[in-house]
Amino acid sequence: MKNNKYFLNTALAAVLGIALLIMMLVRTFVPMAVMPRLDIPNMVLVSLAALLLEHYLTGGSKGGYPGVFLLSGLTFGLLPLAAFFAQPLEAVKLAAVGGCVFTASAWVFRSMQDRLSSGPAAKLAPVMGALGLYLAAQCFAGLL
Amino acid sequence: MKKILFPILSVLLIALVLFGTSWALRGVAQANARKEHMRLLKTVLPGSETFTLEPYTGDDANIRSVHKGENGFVIETCTYGYAGEISMLIGVSSQGRVTGLTVLDLSETLGLGANALKDHEFLAQFLNTGGDVAIRTGDADAFSGATGSAGSDDSTYVDGITGATVTSKAIARSVNSAVAYVTGADADSGATSWGG
């Protein structure tokens, strides 16, 4: 799996799949619970979780952005549709926005990753960096 | 080429699992949703045991659906808050008084507008009001619920959620719309003057 630049997309599918499965169970057994929406901040949150997973499991990867964009678009479009969280038209919109959000998150996180020191004392640095990016994404979404 | 096949197959496999699980649970999900919806209807309009869904033909865009009970109505409303739609169920007695209300769904800012979900003190202020509710703020021009004459001298003022005036006003608009449906303030309401 190491050096596979598309491992990131497998991680994204796994993270989003688990999140949707949990939401599906909550929707089934606590039907009036207010569910989080798949909006830009939550897409960034899922993307960063996948990026962290990739970082800790494989040490990260580079490049392949067109493929990353297409695969993440497929993931953000198909999985909510399969879980009945989105109608077909909405799924197309999610695919387009999700692809852009994930590719942008990957690009920013990887740029930051290059500059993080890799000693034992910096084990948590990627998590802290991801947290900062998530807060920035919330501010950005608020501007929109 | 082989490297890109693995994530594609992963997405397809996970999609299949989600679809299968959702399909398998759909019966339970629908039954639970119906049961929970009925429980909420009875909670916001105490004293009613059966409800019939009435067609809404009025022109108030805030009203989504109307459920008629034995002693009043439960109106499902949808208004725009700060970050999106706020869906609510509002019970209104045949006398045009609010008997209960609950927020079904919202996507307001966490820690601010999202507090409307659990801020019982805020929501309780709407109980037993008769419409024309306005949010009390420091700004003399910014207090209205923006429906009908809300904000006039006859208005009932309630304290908004701290840091979430837009959300508070959206909820006030919902309440005003629901009461207006029952009292007949909505010209196209199916209800008679006092909810008959």
Describe the model:
- Chain A is an all-alpha fold.
- Chain A has helices at 7-29, 40-58, 65-82, 88-115, 125-143.
- In chain A, helix 2 crosses helix 4 (88-115) and helix 2 runs antiparallel to helix 5.
- The longest helix of chain A is centred in the last third of the chain and has 28 residues, at 88-115.
- The mean pLDDT of chain A is 87.
- With 196 residues, chain B is α+β, with helices and mostly antiparallel strands.
- Chain B has 2 domains: 1-38; 52-183, no CATH class.
- Chain B has helices at 2-44, 120-124, 165-183, and strands at residues 52-54, 63-68, 72-80, 85-93, 98-105, 133-136, 156-159.
- Chain B is globular.
- Classes of the chains: A mainly alpha (144), B alpha+beta (196).
- Chain A binds chain B through residues 4-7, 9-10, 13-14, 16-17, 20-21, 24-25, 27-29, 31-32, 34-35, 37, 39, 67, 71, 74-75, 78-79, 81-84, 142, and chain B through 3-4, 6-8, 10-12, 14-19, 21-22, 25-26, 28-29, 32-33, 36-37, 40, 84, 103-107, 109, 117.
Features:
heterodimer, A: 144 residues, mainly alpha, 5 helices, globular, B: 196 residues, alpha+beta, 2 domains, five-stranded antiparallel β-sheet, two-stranded parallel sheet, 34% helix, disordered C terminus
What is the end-to-end distance of chain A? 38 Å
* Total E-strand runs of chain A: 0
Major sheet characteristics of chain B? 5 strands, antiparallel
**Count of all domains of chain B:** 2
Poorly predicted sequence stretches spanning 5 or more consecutive residues of chain B: 140-150, 192-196
Taken in chain order, the helices and strands of chain B follow as: HEEEEEHEEH
| Largest protein-protein interface | A-B, 34 and 33 residues
Mean pLDDT over all positions of chain B:
82
Instruction: Determine the number of helices of chain B (DSSP H or I, runs of at least 4 residues).
Output: 3
Radius of gyration of chain B, in angstroms, nearest whole number: 20 Å
- Could you give the order of the helices and strands of chain A? HHHHH
Structural class estimated from helices and strands of chain A: mainly alpha
Shape of chain B: globular
